[in-house]
From TrEMBL:
Its cofactor is NAD(+). Pathway: Carbohydrate metabolism; galactose metabolism. Belongs to the NAD(P)-dependent epimerase/dehydratase family. Keywords: Carbohydrate metabolism, Isomerase, NAD. This is UDP-glucose 4-epimerase. GO terms for biological process: galactose catabolic process via UDP-galactose, Leloir pathway. Signal peptide: none annotated. Its EC number is 5.1.3.2. InterPro entries: Epimerase_deHydtase (IPR001509), NAD(P)-bd_dom_sf (IPR036291), UDP_G4E (IPR005886).
């Protein structure tokens, strides 16, 4: 028997695949390679190129690889772009999840770990976000993730699906030099690309009500995140009690200015970030508690900020050298 990882050739997904392999659990990946890369997968990984919008292919994959559960990571993940492409976002994230759940029901696959997002909270008015913090998503992306959680919960009532959803914030770092963050919108790739091109990285706003005036966020190492997904899957396999939702948060957060200082220290490239205007709707601080996940999913921050930057920089330079 095996677990299927949708979007498993992506930056996060390929780390989840490696985490499963490290625990001796068979995995099959379904990915359309729209943002993932086949080269990110360990050699020998069972792979099916396809989309979660193709229910027939999903059902055949479940049968062929004797799939017992799904880690659902596939989707359109760009919150800012989703405002300009709402229909595309909903088709990928909502229609895709419906199609996946229908295929699971048809083939008796009864376990799911859903990769949700802290975007479901929007701009919270609390210092520390918990799973009970009101959900007020402010983009089609955040809305689609919340709808995904609803769909999964409703399907659980209807069919007995065992599930959990993991909400998290900014994922950084690398667990292997072969995999790096390819997003054109995330902070680390933007900063590294600027430095490699001889440009000065920029900070969007330095007048927020935070200790150094820049945004504060959770930054989580991708390998730590991947481990939590696999522990959740193992918990579902064992039949142990599991919460419907967990936040994977640091509990403290890191500011953008602190990130910039760490990048300068790690890369040895001295720079003073430029200051750009604030981005509309960008909250001053979003930090989540990971206490519930620590209790059930072995969640903890195993990597320091310097280690996050070092691993990400190593992987990015390795990619540049290819």
């Amino acid at each position: 028997m095996s677990w299927l990882v949708t979007g498993g050739a992506g930056y996060i997904g390929s780390h989840v695949v490696r985490a499963f392999a490290s625990r001796g659990i068979d995995v099959v990946v379904v990915d359309d390679l729209s943002s993932g890369r086949r080269s990110f997968l360990p050699e020998g990984t069972a792979f099916v190129q396809g989309t979660i919008l193709d229910g027939s292919q999903l059902e055949m994959t479940f049968e062929r690889f004797d799939v017992q559960g799904v880690v659902h990571l596939a989707g359109f993940k760009y919150a800012g772009v989703s405002v300009q492409r709402p229909l595309h976002t909903y088709r990928q994230n909502v229609t895709g999840t419906i199609t996946l759940l229908a295929a699971m029901e048809a083939r008796g696959v009864d376990r799911m770990v859903f990769s949700s997002s802290a975007a479901v909270y929007g701009t919270p008015d609390v210092d520390l976000v918990t799973e009970d913090t009101p959900k007020r998503p402010q983009s089609p992306y955040g809305e689609s993730k919340l709808v995904g959680e609803w769909l999964i919960a409703d399907q659980a009532v209807a069919t007995g699906l065992r599930h959990t959803s993991l909400r998290y914030f900014n994922v950084v770092g690398s667990g292997t030099p072969q995999v790096f963050d390819v997003s054109p919108h995330n902070l680390f790739p933007l900063v590294f690309d600027a430095l490699l091109d001889g440009r000065t990285p920029r900070i969007n706003g330095n007048d927020y009500p935070t200790p150094d005036g820049t945004n504060v966020r959770d930054y989580l190492h991708v390998a730590d995140l991947a481990e939590a997904h696999v522990v959740a899957a193992e918990r579902l396999d064992s039949g142990k009690p599991i919460e419907p939702v967990y936040n994977l948060g640091s509990g403290t957060g890191v500011s953008v200015a602190e990130i910039m200082r760490a990048v300068a220290d790690v890369t040895g490239i001295e720079f003073t970030p430029g200051i750009a205007p604030r981005r509309a709707g960008d909250p001053a601080r979003i930090v989540a508690s990971g206490d519930l996940a620590a209790r059930d999913l072995e969640w903890r921050m195993r990597h320091s900020l310097a280690e996050m930057v070092e691993s990400a920089w190593e992987a990015r330079r390795a990619a540049s050298a290819e």
